[in-house]
Specification:
Largest interface: A-B, 69 and 69 residues
Strand order of the largest sheet of chain A: 2-1-3-4-5-11
Oligomer: homodimer
Number of helices of chain A: 13
Mean pLDDT of chain A: 93
Order of helices and strands of chain A: HHHHEHEHEHEEHEHEHEHEHEHEE
Structural class of chain A: alpha/beta
Largest sheet of chain A: 6 strands, parallel
Radius of gyration of chain A: 25 Å
Chain lengths: 341, 341
DNA sequence: TTGAAAGCGATACCAT
DNA sequence: ATGGTATCGCTTTCAA
């Protein structure tokens, strides 16, 4: 295995000092245009690539971004968001010579340790912060650690980090209007808890939209796990007939699928006896029967925007929030007119 | 933000040279026991941690493992294996001061590039190779790149890398026997293609087990995607009644769920009209209705064993294959006696 | 057993 | 515009 060419190999070939090679290769001023071109040519010819470890040692840069995800190990697989999100990150990262360091942890202790060691060991230049909580301690923590970050959604604490945002208001309004137009009056929402920011926001949007249509909102909070989604469904279906919702809007698709399953086990036909929707378009939603009405979502787009935002920030650009195309309604088989009684 | 203590800080405190500190901190011979202890004590006191970049520069070690996953971006999210698998990797990695570099790529070109650059840039010390193919080019590629690897399953090409293995024979035999005992005679398998090693193996085990029970195997190959799982189901259900299977064993759980959905859309009740099983126990399998009979699986266990195997190898231990507890049957609601006609 | 110094591959500063 | 050299944090000789 031939030794990889280093900057001194390039310098020797070009007959210049390695300092100059560094300047030329990094497109820094102070190099004669001809010399620069010659050096760059030689570098590509002999297949030189910068060594991130060496570079990082002087630069204090890791050329890597960190993603720490905390999930209950039992339910970790049911989140349909991350795979495509990471694939989206990847496209941008690889283009820019960076890598993704992923840490999947089970509890808050391990989570904090992960953030601390990744930063302290200079393994990442910035963090991608997903699943924001109310009063999220990670914003402060990361600030203390002296690395950059980008958040998915807007934190409710002061932050100097940019956020990538998406407006769910029109999508949720459209979804609710669609249900009301079908004839639904009692519409329930199986939401996340108020400690989870995006769950909180969606819940508020839901209540507002339902009220706006003159219908009756009903909310059952959960932790977003399919198990609690199932339990919430049981609770709703156990209500006396005149309070029982005819449509249930679930905070995410896995909960919707679990909820459908509960309803079907009780002998309810979907959508004839009960309409069901998700709020976060996923592929599995297309596989179940009936296929799930939901809002669209493009995790890969999230990934691309998040990665470029954070990399720009790490490269010294001033932080700027970015906004994705708003969510839109996808009608599939799980929704229909309420039963006429 | 206080500067992190370096090895010279430890040396100064201890009143020794930094070379000696390095020896002491790495548990190398040639240091007086008392001195060593004193140095180590001081190191922990002032919170010293080795800087992986600096260390790697001399060592040619990245203190990181690489996982490159190639998936069609559209179906990437449906694989229930990876999240828990990665969580399993993580527990071992963090214990040993290592990190996981994850690359999710869409096509074979990007895949090869990922392997090459991660190795060439010294970003990882070894690769975790999943989803083995027949004649898998990655074994040779990684060997050429001069880094280590561990495979999930046994490659069909010569390899010097250790493998982590799991015996599916007893589980598949148990599953088939269970179906036969219920009264099924025509049992179909929606399998992976022969280019995918674990699909190939399971298919062979299935055919062998069904024949062994005196029943009739029927196999439809797919690419393991839910889409093709659905198509295969249609194909099977379109067969004339006397050829049509009464039970379908799917190569993985997402295909089984898609298949159930197809059957249910055709008005078939599961398990009364058709029994359905997966082969790779997942959590989503518990959420659908009816819940999916399948073989158990512990992706986190895979992760832990794989990580420790590869780290040992990187640390210089001779490669040894490891074997997991064999698969066992999990009976849930999607299987029952065949319809009496 | 310990210290001193060289080197890993790059960047950055100070001369010229 | 270019060369020389110190430096990043750590490991690894080689002497003493």
């Amino acid at each position: 295995m031939a030794r990889r060419p280093t900057i001194v190999d390039v310098a020797r070939e070009a007959g210049v000092s390695k300092g100059l090679v560094s300047l030329a290769l990094n497109d820094r001023p102070g190099v004669n245009a001809g010399t620069r071109e010659r050096i760059q040519q030689i570098a590509t010819d002999i297949g030189w690539r910068p060594n991130p470890a060496a570079r990082g040692l002087t630069n204090r840069r890791a050329y890597a971004l960190g993603l720490v995800v905390r999930r209950d190990p039992r339910i970790i697989e049911t989140d349909p968001f991350f795979a495509a999100f990471i694939a989206g990150l990847e496209t941008v990262l690889s283009d820019r010579g960076q890598v993704l360091v992923l840490s999947l942890v089970a509890d808050q202790d391990a989570e904090e340790r992960a953030y601390r060691t990744l930063a302290a060991d200079a393994r990442v230049d910035g963090f991608i912060v997903t699943d924001l909580l109310a009063d999220d301690p990670r914003i402060d923590l990361i600030t203390t650690l002296g690395v950059q970050a980008v958040t998915l959604g807007q934190p409710d604490v002061p932050t100097s980090f940019p956020a990538v945002l998406r407006d769910y208001a029109p999508g949720i309004a459209e979804l609710v209007r669609y249900l009301v137009d079908l004839g639904h009056v009692r519409i329930a929402h199986v939401s996340g808890t108020d400690t989870m920011l995006h769950g909180h926001e969606r819940r508020q949007l839901f209540v507002h939209a339902v009220r706006g249509e003159g219908a009756e909102p009903l909310v059952v909070p959960t932790d977003f796990s399919p198990e609690q989604g199932a339990a919430a469904t049981t609770e709703l279906l156990d209500l006396p007939a005149h309070e029982r919702p005819t449509a249930i809007v679930y905070g995410n698709d896995p909960m919707a699928i679990a909820g459908m399953s509960v309803a079907q086990q009780r002998g309810l036909r979907i959508p004839d006896d009960l309409s069901v929707t998700g709020l976060d378009g996923s592929q599995i939603g297309r596989l179940v029967h009936p296929a799930l009405t939901t809002l669209d979502n493009d995790p890969a787009e999230w990934g691309r925007i998040v990665a470029s935002t954070l990399l720009d920030l790490v490269d010294g650009t001033a932080p700027v929030d970015r906004t994705l195309t708003p969510a839109g309604l996808i009608v599939r088989g799980s929704t229909g007119a309420p039963p006429t009684r």
